[in-house]
Design brief:
The complex is a heterodimer of chains A (about 350) and B (about 325). Chain A is built from 13 helices and 4 strands. With about 350 residues, chain A is mostly helical. A two-stranded antiparallel sheet of chain A has the order 1-2. In chain A, strands 3-4 form a two-stranded antiparallel ribbon. In chain A, helix 10 runs antiparallel to helix 13. Chain B is about 70% helix and about 0% strand. Chain B has 12 helices and 2 strands, in the order αααααααββααααα. In chain B, a hairpin with a 2-residue loop joins strand 1 and strand 2. The chains are: A mainly alpha (about 350), B mainly alpha (about 325).
Chain lengths: ~350, ~325
C-alpha cells in the first residue's frame, strides 16, 4: 500500500508539471502566433504613458525576449522559491508560491486565489451534499420501484435536468425567487458573506446557487444510481443476502447500494475537483466572487499571469481529487494496487 | 466477423467462406446486428421522437436564411420604432406578433425568432464538428493504444490522464479569450468557429479515447482476431477490417451523447462572452444579454428553450441508440 501511495503521489506531481508546461507553452505561444511581440506584451504592463524605449527595457527586464524554456524555468522557480519582477519603475517581490504577478493590478496572483477559494469551496461542498443526498436517494427509490409513477416522473425530470444549462436555470431561478416577483426568498446574486462572519447570511446568499447547481448534478447522479442499482440488485450476492434472511432494508442499503455506488465515487471525485477549480458558470450567473469569476475577469482583462495561475490552481484540484479517488479505490479494492 | 481475405496470394480457399455464410441462411432469414438494432430503435417511440426533433433542428439550421426570409426579418436588423423609449422594452411587453413570432429584444428590437433560428446554425455546426474532431482523435489514439499495448499504450494512457486533468471550461475560456480577431489567415466568425471547434473537440478526445481503448483491449484477445492473424493479416488490416466494425456501436453511441454536451459547451462559452462574437446570434450570447433584462422574461425564454430542446432531443436519441445497440448497458 505504501509503495502504491508513493507511486501515485509521484505521478500526481509529474502530471501537474506536465500540465503547467503545456499551459505555459500555450498561453505564451498562442498570443505570439497571433502576432503579439515581446514589446506589445510588455507595453500592457508599463502603462500607456511609456515610450518605445521604456517598453523595450521593460520587455527585456521581464524576460519576454528569452526563449520559452527559460521563461518557463523562471515561472516554475517562482512557484517553489518566489520571484522578483523588475518592470522598470520599481521591483516587486512575489513570495513563494509565486503563481505569477499581475502587472495590471500590481498584485501577486496567489493571495488573490486564496481569497477566492472559500467562496468556491462553500458553493461546491454545499451543492455536493445536496446533490449526493437527493440524487442517490431518487436513484435508489426509482430502481426499487422500477416502472412506477415515481420512477417515470423522477427520470423525466432527471433527463430534463441534465439537458438544462445552469446559466438558464440560474437566471430563471433568480427571476422567480430573488428579484421580488413572485416568491422572493433570497437577495439577488453577488452578495456573498463569509461563513465565519455570519453563518445565516452565508447560507442565505448561497441557497439559490446551491439548489440550482445541485439540481443539475442530482439529475445525472439519479440516472447513474438507478442504472447501477438495477444492475447490482440482479447480482447473485443479493439473492444470497435475501436467502440468508437479511431484512430487505439491509439488503438494499448494505449490499445493493454499496455495489452501485463504487463507480459513482470516481465521478463524484472528478466533479468536486472540477468545481473547486472554479464553478465558472454558476459563479458568473449569480455573480459570486469565487475562483470562476476570477478566471472570467482575468480573461476579460487579458491578464495572462492571472489566467495561468487560475488554470494551474484548478488543475491542482482535479489532480488531487483524482489522487484521493485512486487511493480510496485501493483501500476498497486491493486488486487496484497491483495495476 | 472475419471477412474472407481478398489478397490474391493468400493461401485460403475462397470458396470455403461463402459456404459457411450460406449455411445460416438455409431456413430462417438471418439478421445483421444493424438490422436488429434498427428494429429495437423503431420500437422506442421516445428515441424516434428525439431523432425527429434532431432532424427538424438540422433542417432549421440548414435553411435558416430561407426560414427567416419567409417572415421578412433579418437577425441583425434593429427595430427601434417598435421599442418603448422610456422602458427600453418592446411596445406591448414582448413585441410578439405575426411578423415577430418570438417577439423582440429589448433596447434595439432585433427579431428574436430569426436570432434563435440563426443561433441553431452556430450551435449545431460547432457541436457536430467538435464531436467529429474528438471522435477522430479519440478513435485513432484509442485503437492505437489498445492494439499495440506496452509502451505505446502507457504513453497514450498517461496523455489521456493529463488531458483529463485540465480544467476544461476554464482552459477553453482562457484560450478562446486570448485569440485575437484575426489569426492563422482567418478572421471574424470563421476564426471563432474554427477556434471553438478546436478547443472543444481537442480537449474532449480522451473520454472517447478511453472507451475505444478499453474495447480494443478486449477485442484484441478475441478468437476472430486470432483467426485473421493466423490467415496472415497484418496490423492495419486487423485494425480497420476486423476491429473497427466492432467499435462502430460504442463510437456511434458516444458521439450521439457527446453532441448535446458540446451544444452546452458552446452555449456556455458564448454565455461567458468568449464564443462567436456579436452581432452573430448565438443562444448562449442571447442568454447572457437576457440576464440584464430579467423583467422581460420572453427574451431569455426562447434561446433557453432552444438549448434545452436541442440537448434533450440529442439525449433522448442517444439513450435510445444505446439501448438499441447495446441492450446490456440499459
Amino acid at each position: 500500500m505504501v509503495t502504491y501511495i508513493i507511486r501515485r503521489l509521484i505521478w500526481a506531481a509529474v502530471m501537474l508539471t506536465i500540465v503547467s508546461i503545456i499551459t505555459f507553452a500555450i498561453f505564451f505561444l498562442v498570443p505570439r502566433l497571433a502576432g503579439a511581440t515581446p514589446e506589445s506584451l510588455a507595453a500592457r504592463y508599463v502603462g500607456r504613458t511609456a515610450n518605445a524605449e521604456q517598453v523595450q527595457i521593460a520587455a527585456e527586464k521581464l524576460g519576454f525576449n528569452d526563449p520559452l524554456v527559460v521563461q518557463y524555468g523562471r515561472f516554475a522557480k517562482g512557484i517553489v522559491a518566489g520571484a522578483d519582477y523588475d518592470y522598470g519603475p520599481g521591483v516587486e517581490h512575489c513570495p513563494a508560491p509565486c503563481f505569477g504577478y499581475s502587472f495590471l493590478t500590481r498584485l501577486p496572483v496567489w493571495p488573490d486565489l486564496l481569497d477566492r477559494l472559500p467562496v468556491t469551496m462553500s458553493l461546491a461542498f454545499g451543492a455536493a451534499i445536496i446533490w449526493v443526498l437527493a440524487g442517490v436517494a431518487t436513484g435508489v427509490v426509482s430502481a426499487l420501484k422500477r416502472g412506477s409513477f415515481f420512477d417515470r416522473a423522477a427520470m423525466t425530470i432527471a433527463l430534463g435536468g441534465v439537458s438544462l444549462p445552469i446559466f438558464f436555470t440560474g437566471i430563471v431561478s433568480m427571476v422567480v425567487f430573488s428579484y421580488g416577483n413572485p416568491f422572493s426568498i433570497t437577495a439577488p446574486g453577488g452578495s456573498y458573506t463569509p461563513l465565519l462572519d455570519d453563518p445565516v447570511a452565508w447560507a442565505y446568499s448561497l441557497v439559490l446557487p446551491w439548489v440550482t447547481l445541485a439540481f443539475l448534478y442530482a439529475a445525472g447522479y439519479a440516472r447513474l444510481t438507478r442504472a447501477g442499482m438495477l444492475e447490482t440488485m440482479n447480482e447473485d450476492y443479493i439473492r444470497t443476502a435475501r436467502a440468508k434472511g437479511l431484512a430487505e432494508r439491509t439488503v438494499v442499503l448494505k449490499h445493493g447500494l454499496r455495489g452501485a455506488l463504487t463507480p459513482l465515487v470516481t465521478i463524484f471525485g472528478l466533479d468536486v475537483g472540477l468545481l473547486l477549480g472554479g464553478a465558472v458558470l454558476t459563479e458568473s450567473t449569480y455573480s459570486l466572487p469565487g475562483m470562476g469569476k476570477y478566471a472570467i475577469d482575468a480573461i476579460t482583462n487579458q491578464d495572462l499571469p492571472k489566467v495561468m495561475g487560475v488554470v494551474l490552481f484548478a488543475a491542482f484540484f482535479v489532480v488531487v481529487a483524482n489522487l484521493i479517488v485512486d487511493l480510496l479505490y485501493a483501500v476498497v479494492d486491493p486488486r487496484v494496487r497491483l495495476a | 466477423m472475419t471477412a474472407p481475405l481478398d489478397v490474391p496470394d493468400a493461401s485460403v480457399d475462397p470458396a470455403s467462406a461463402p459456404a459457411i455464410a450460406g449455411a445460416g441462411v438455409a431456413a430462417i432469414q438471418g439478421r445483421s446486428l444493424g438490422q436488429i438494432a434498427w428494429m429495437r430503435l423503431k420500437r422506442d417511440k421516445i428515441a424516434i421522437a428525439g431523432a425527429l426533433v434532431v432532424i427538424f433542428l438540422i433542417l432549421v439550421a440548414v435553411f435558416a436564411p430561407l426560414l427567416v426570409k419567409a417572415f421578412g426579418q433579418d437577425p441583425t436588423q434593429f427595430n427601434s420604432d417598435l421599442i418603448d423609449a422610456s422602458t427600453m422594452a418592446p411596445k406591448g411587453g414582448t413585441g410578439i406578433s405575426a411578423d415577430h413570432l418570438f417577439g423582440l429584444e429589448p433596447v434595439n428590437g432585433r427579431d428574436i425568432f430569426s436570432r434563435v433560428v440563426y443561433g441553431a446554425r452556430i450551435s449545431l455546426l460547432i457541436a457536430f464538428l467538435a464531436t467529429l474532431l474528438s471522435v477522430a482523435i479519440g478513435t485513432l489514439l484509442g485503437v492505437t493504444a489498445g492494439y499495440f499495448g506496452g509502451l505505446v499504450d502507457s504513453i497514450i494512457s498517461k496523455a489521456m490522464d493529463v488531458f483529463l486533468a485540465f480544467p476544461l471550461l476554464v482552459f477553453a475560456m482562457a484560450l478562446a479569450g486570448i485569440i485575437p480577431d484575426s489569426a492563422f489567415g482567418l478572421s471574424g466568425d470563421t476564426l471563432r468557429v474554427a477556434m471553438l471547434v478546436f478547443v472543444i473537440g481537442f480537449f474532449n478526445w480522451p473520454y472517447i479515447g478511453r472507451i475505444v481503448r478499453g474495447q480494443t483491449l478486449s477485442l484484441r484477445e478475441r478468437e476472430f482476431v486470432d483467426a485473421a492473424r493466423s490467415l496472415g493479416a497484418r496490423g492495419p488490416y486487423v485494425i480497420f477490417r476486423e476491429m473497427l466494425p466492432n467499435l462502430v456501436a460504442p463510437i456511434l453511441i458516444y458521439s450521439t451523447l457527446l453532441i448535446p454536451s458540446n451544444v452546452l459547451f458552446e452555449a456556455a462559452l458564448s454565455f461567458l462572452g468568449v464564443g462567436v462574437r456579436p452581432p452573430t446570434p448565438t443562444w448562449g450570447g442571447m442568454l447572457s444579454d437576457a440576464v440584464r433584462f430579467y423583467t422581460i422574461p420572453h427574451f431569455m425564454f426562447f434561446p433557453g428553450m432552444a438549448i434545452f430542446i436541442t440537448v434533450l432531443a440529442f439525449n433522448l436519441f442517444g439513450d435510445g441508440l444505446r439501448d438499441a445497440l447495446d441492450p446490456k448497458a440499459r
